[in-house]
Amino acid sequence: MNHKIIIVLLLVFFLVRISTAQEPLPATEKYTFENCINKFDMSKTVKTSVGYQYWFIGQKFLDDNLTVKMSVVAPKQATHAPHKHPGDETFFILEGTAQFYLNGKTTTGGPLTSFYCPVGSKHGISNAGDTELKYLVIRKYVE
To answer: Which of 14, 28, 40, 83 has the lowest tally of Cβ within 10 angstroms?
Structure first.
């Protein structure tokens, strides 16, 4: 992954973090210099039926359940069918061409395109291209 993608990832995370922050992060030992940095490591990916996923920020790391995950999907495939869930979600395309579905409408987008899925909307993303699709999933899990 090149440095431009890492910069974009960090920028997106901090923008989402600022926009959803209610209170500052607690000043505890939970956050250390070492665990606040997450460099992509292929050996730590989670295999899926159509590619793999890598959690840059896992669900248990932040107190507000905000996550950042990279999904990689094979050509002409989707991780799952369009669905609904509590909490909003944003997809940010890093590489490839995505088809985005939102409440009965579809469009496509390439690198540096974001797709926002409001709470309760029926949404989905799939690989519309002939190469791998890499995108970030930025989501706040609601319990």
So the answer is: 28
The whole-angstrom distance between residue 5's C-alpha and the CA centroid of its chain comes to 13
Query: Which amino acid belongs to residue 70?
Result: M
Beta bridge mates, 117:
89
Instruction: Report CA torsion sign: 49, 112, 23, 28.
Output: positive
Predicted TM-score (pTM) of the model is 0.73
User: 3-state DSSP call for residue 7?
Assistant: helix
Kindly report the CATH number that applies to the domain delimited by 3-21+32-140.
Answer: 2.60.120.10
Region for 100 from its dihedrals, namely left if φ exceeds 0, alpha if ψ lies in -120 to 50, beta otherwise: beta
β-sheet bridge partners, residue 72: 52, 134
pLDDT in tens, 82-133: 999 888 899 999 999 999 999 999 999 999 999 999 888 999 999 999 999 9
CA angle 12–9–52, rounded 5-degree value = 120
